[in-house]
Amino acid sequence: MKVSTVIPAAGVGSRAGFGQNKLLQKLGDETVIEKTVRAFTASGLVDEIVIVASGEDGKIMRGLFPSATFALGGATRTESVKNGLKAASGDIVLVHDGARPFVTAEIIGRCIESVKRFGSGVAAVTAADTLAAGENGTLTRVYGKEGNFILQTPQAFLRGELLSAYEKARGSFPDESSLYLRYVGNPHLVEGSRENRKLTFREDFGCPFRTGCGYDTHELVTGRKLILCGVEIPHDKGLLGHSDADAPAHALTDALLSAAGLKDIGTYFPDTDAAYEGADSMELLRKVVSLLKERKLRPVNASITVLAQKPKLAPYIDNMKANIAAALKIDVSSVGVSATTTERLGFVGREEGIAAYASALIEQTL
After folding, report:
1. Which of 229, 235, 216, 233 is nearest to 351 (CA)?
2. How far apart are CA 63 and CA 83, in angstroms?
3. Helices H / strands E in the chain, number of each
4. How deeply is 341 buried, as exposed, middle or buried, from its count of CB atoms within 10 A (0-12, 13-18, 19+)?
5. Which of 159, 179, 237, 274 could form a disulfide with 93 if both were Cys (CB 3.0 to 4.6 A apart)?
6. pTM for the model
7. How distant is the alpha carbon of residue 189 from its chain centre?
8. Upper half-sphere CA count for residue 362 (Cβ side, 13 Å)
9. Is 3.30.465.10 the CATH classification of the domain at 3-205?
């Protein structure tokens, strides 16, 4: 049996507040609609994609999906889906919200198999919260969690049967299951997923995370200050470098740049540039945070491990954490700084230098 997916994408999505169709909002490197369509094409379970769109949005989506079938959006979701069903050619049709990009092949497969066995298949999860109805700011009815479900999409049916129901429909329906229940019968429920969420409000867009790692080491020499994470630490030696040679700050700077997909610290602050001679590495770190902000990225978490035989760093860790948190503009609880020796092994153990590892978690902002 041929399987079609109808994706209504003609809505404005005003509750998300982007000033454009939320399906064209970037979610990482792709738009929401691209992620949604890719979930179906990558599943290998669908023969046809039908996108229901209108106006300028429709033109953009046609450019994104040249092999898809397109139908014109209507004044309501009900009208849009009806138009999509008419444009589809499959025996089985799955109607799926364009704003649910996290649907999996497993859910798609369960919906299709349910149609083959029962004539319908509606993705759903059990209600985790108490449901209630209200009017004028007061509760009018409370529903227990037991036996209640949160309906999702895909909602799959035999195309001819669903289209026939739409032809009979008067008024608007919130989804296909409600229309099917009214004109055909009881739709069969299949297991959905709480991760198969719909992006409705701005905060639903859950910024994707990126991670990066960094490493740096500098030689210990006499006649230099020892500065780690912007904290001057009393010692008879300091780290040698073009800047203040703050190894953990450099490692974290590289971790942030790596997470953002940018080049390393030497590209932005070369040791051949006199402007950075003796530079405050914490200021360089702040510059990188600003660089990330220009790309709509921001730090979320940072972790640093300093490798030093001497001096003991425990008394200075809190100040080091505070400096990093301030530079990254995050809470100090989101910064980890630890120190360890190498049990006198290697150049660190011989007190010839200090090294640092760092990892960073950043997120895309909207």
Report:
1. 235
2. 20
3. 11, 18
4. middle
5. 159
6. 0.66
7. 28
8. 33
9. no
Residues 6+ apart with CB under 8 A from 241: 218, 271
Residue 210 and residue 363 in contact, taking contact as beta carbons nearer than 8 Å:
yes
Residue 71 CA to residue 28 CA, distance in Å, equals: 27
CA atoms within 13 A on the CB side of 118: 16
Q: What is the pLDDT of residues 137-191, one digit of tens each?
A: 899 999 877 889 999 999 999 999 999 999 999 888 999 999 999 999 999 999 9
Q: Note the pLDDT tens digit of each residue in 244-268.
A: 999 999 999 999 999 999 999 999 9
Angle between helix axes 281-294 and 317-328 (nearest 10 degrees) is: 30
Sorted by sequence, the CB contacts under 8 Å of residue 91 that are 6+ apart come out as: 1, 2, 3, 158, 159, 160
Which CATH number is 209-364 given?
3.30.1330.50
Q: Which letter, b or e, does each residue of 301-314 get, where b requires 16 or more Cβ atoms within 10 Å of its Cβ?
A: bbbbbbbbbebebe
Q: What is the 8-class DSSP label of residue 335? A: E
Domain ranges of the chain: 3-205, 209-364
